[in-house]
Amino acid sequence: MFLLLISCFSVILLSKSLSSKTQQRIHCKWRLFPPLFQKFKLGIFSFLQAIPLKKMKLGSSESPKEDHSTTSLSLLDLPELTLESILDRLSPAGLCAMAGVCSELRDRCTSDHFWEKHMKQKWCKVIGAAADREWQWHIASKMRQKNLLDPNNQQSFLGSFTKICPFLSRFSFKSRTENGENQLRKSDLPVDSTMARYLSLETGEFWFPAQVYNRENGHAGFMLSCYDAKLSYDSKTDTFQARYSPHRRRTAEENISWDRLRVPPVGTCSYDLHISNSLLDLKPGDHVEIQWRKTKEFPYGWWYGVVGHMESCDGNENHCRCLYTDTMMLEFKQYPSSSRWRKTAVNRNDHREVGNEAYGFYGGIRKLYKEEEISMWKRLWPNHVLE
């Protein structure tokens, strides 16, 4: 009987111990997962409070010291797909913060896999083929600089990024030798990586080509036009500054909003005549953009207009033959009917630059097929008729 009582008492103590440990594990799990399902609203650092991270020294050959007295789950101990899912949900600032934790997370968080998504989400509406070519030229010019492989030059190239990613100054350029001495590393963040490109845009270091609607703060002389410019982003105001390069002087503009920018729709240089391929199909009511410049020394801008009826046509659709004439009429209805800028005639069959110093020079024409493009011009329509 005495032995039976001792056995029962041992079982009771053991069950309480197991129950206590099980509750602790469940509690830890509940601390771990809620931040993930709240889309990191509490921030990555609240998540780190729930999951202790491994302490890893960059470049050190020493293995991290583990405290065997307590058992804790490390972020790097999570299954691969779980960790990938966590990192995939981080913002650019979150990736930068996470990359400063240890060398393994730095390698993961700086990979193109995560940054390509952020590039597409934020920059796809203003970054086109011209900006891609400019970026390649930007990289090549950096690579051609004297002593680029000198760590000091690498630090100079990426120095401006430390405002957004402090880990670059703390981790990217320093490691330890076997003797424990610090030494500089050269290529933790390649200059041609997607992360480097994103940060170059975000910090405003990279000036990229795009087009600006209604340049110079909606100056009446540029209303309903779109001009090429070099642009730099200001993250503090979430706006852009532009540099235009007309003849004889350089013009700058600040505080340009996102909705006034677009990717160049064609690859024609702003000083070259665009070769039109839709002139024979244009009919009254079609929406177009036409190149125009003040003098032959100036670059072209794209101006919005519509195809109108010839003067000999009464506008009746049943009798209109404007589609079959050699000459078509373009109208710019932002100007009054009495303005010299209201209409211009264009030859369909032998179209080339036409004009003079008084009226300017008209170049190539592109037909607008997308409702999105047409709607954009209508949103920019002036509140009053231009003189």
From TrEMBL:
PROSITE patterns with a match to the protein in the record: FBOX
Listed SMART domains: FBOX
InterPro entries (alphabetical): F-box-like_dom_sf, F-box_dom
Pfam families listed in its UniProt record: F-box
Positions in coiled-coil regions: none
Keyword Signal assigned: yes
Keyword Signal listed: yes
Chain ranges of the F-box domain: 72-118
Signal sequence bounds: 1-19
Entry keywords, A to Z: Signal
Protein known as: F-box domain-containing protein
